[in-house]
Amino acid sequence: MTALLALATSLLWGLADFGGGLLTRRIPALTVVVASQVLATVVLACVVLATGAWDEAGPRLGYAVAAGVVGTAAMLCFYQALALGPMGVVSPLGSLGVAVPVGIGLMLGERPGLLQFAGIAVAVLGVILAGGPELRGTSVRRQAITLTLLAAVGFGAVMALIAEAATSISGLFLALLVQRLTNVTVGGTALYVSVRRGGRALPEEGGASVVLSSLPALAFVGLADVAANGTYSLAANSGPVTVAAVLASLYPVVTVLAAFVFLQERLKGIQAAGAGLALVGTILLATR
């Protein structure tokens, strides 16, 4: 069950990143983040009201607030890094955040078997290679590397925090709502500051009409991200965090394959090899 939930997480996160990447070609990235999270928040609020999850309020929601703050900051760092450095360097480095929850799991006493340790190494290497790292002839600004590593640590921290935010399904709904409310607050503030400094909240061509026509896609991105956080929390609480975190971090492979299927983007040899290694790592991690 842990492996299936974690793989569902990677599928959802990968599709959310793919959809978000497409949207940022037409809409400012920060607007995509805020709008998608607002739509997800509305849906989650309805679910919480319908299930009576408010009764689950407690100290654990502090983890959800922290996940919301850290997650938004990590996403902003990641987008800024993409603006400064080549995607072929930034994207693979961003996946190194898996070291955070894996490290926490090991510190808490989890000891995967030999095959699972091999699976962790192979899967992480596969994820990095699947991003198509640009290894030669690429000038990378130090600031881009710094921002990417900060984002990676932030993404990994969110995985660790959301796993601690709830112990029941209804509590998880409430935790995800609190996380999203925090996302919207922090992201909305950043968007306001950006606009005040001369940035754009709407596309140069089409303006608000482009955003309105993209609402279904924005809702998909937001809800896929929420669902991924939910399935990861369930995965991390049903089995070893070291296994759940690595399998959930296969999402860059999903994004690459989605681009190949839907956009006919050709895979580099190194990306195909990375996808293959990720599959091998998945099989090893599922081995008991």
Supply database-style keywords.
288 residues; mainly alpha; 0% strand
Tell me about this structure.
- The protein has helices at residues 2-23, 29-51, 61-84, 87-94, 99-107, 114-130, 142-163, 169-196, 208-213, 215-238, 241-248, 251-262, 269-285.
- The protein is mostly helical and 288 residues long.
- Helix 2 packs antiparallel against helix 8 (169-196) and helix 5 packs across helix 7.
- The longest helix has 28 residues, at 169-196.
- The model has no long low-confidence stretch (mean pLDDT 84).
Question: SSE order in H/E notation?
Answer: HHHHHHHHHHHHH
Query: Which overall shape is indicated by the principal axes computed on the Cα atoms?
Result: globular
| Estimated radius of gyration | 18 Å
Ranges where pLDDT stays below 50 over 5 or more residues in a row are: none
Largest sheet: none
Number of helices, counting only DSSP H or I runs of 4 residues or more: 13
Structural class: mainly alpha
Q: Using DSSP, what is the number of strands? A: 0
Q: Roughly how many Å apart are the termini?
A: 13 Å
Helix content: over 70%
Strand content: under 5%
Mean pLDDT: 84
Briefly characterize the structure.
With 288 residues, the protein is an all-alpha fold. The chain is built from 13 helices and no strands.
